[in-house]
Amino acid sequence: QVSIVGTMNTRSCSVAAGSRNVSVNMREVAYPTGFSGRQAGAYGPTIPFQITVNCVSGPRTSIQFDPVTTLAGRPNTIGLTPDPSNASGVGVQLLSWSGVPLQLRTPLLQIERAPDGASTFGFGGRYILTGEPVRGGRANAASVFTMVYE
Q1: Which of 2, 67, 68, 107 could make an S-S bridge to 78, C-beta 3.0–4.6 Å?
Q2: What pTM, to 2 d.p., does this model score?
Q3: What is the DSSP string of 87-148?
Q4: Contact 62, 109 (CB under 8 A)
């Protein structure tokens, strides 16, 4: 005879209310003086932002960013949201809290849950030159983030 006794623990997390729809004001950046150079890959200033999740048990948490608009040949750059008044020649690059460019479409940053149940992910966003001719205008971009709990 075999007797098995156990407890099932449902790991549950939720994105904090203030983090469900994060809007990052990227500010106005002048070209070329506001960028690190004039070539493709040159970037503007980094604007920090955070995403917080609350967990009732101890899962590890990871996050994945998927761009709404993609750019051909630039897999880790978020394209601008289509609009006739858009700028051109720029996209948006996301960074880890330590300033390392993020790989999009890939689960990132597995972090153990904080003791109080809240885990905060720190990121940055910045404009990046794509190599296309630069034209001024609106420069809005969008990405969907997905939280994965193990």
Answers
A1: 67
A2: 0.86
A3: -BSEEEEEEETTSPBPPTTS-EEEEPPPTTSEEEEEEEEEEEE-SSPPB-SB--B-EEEEEE
A4: yes
Of 74, 73, 76, which Cα lies nearest the Cα of 93?
76
Give tens-digit pLDDT for 113-123: 555 677 788 99
The average confidence (pLDDT) of the chain is 85
Domains and their CATH numbers in the chain: 13-17+24-149 (2.60.40.1090)
Per cent of the chain over pLDDT 90 is 59
Query: 94, 123 in Cβ contact below 8 A?
Result: yes
Give the number of other CB atoms < 10 A from CB of residue 108: 18
Which has more confidence, 5 or 44? 44
For residues 40-67, one letter each, b for 16 or more C-beta atoms within 10 angstroms of the residue's C-beta and e for the rest, the string is eebbbeebeeebbbbbeeebebbbbbeb
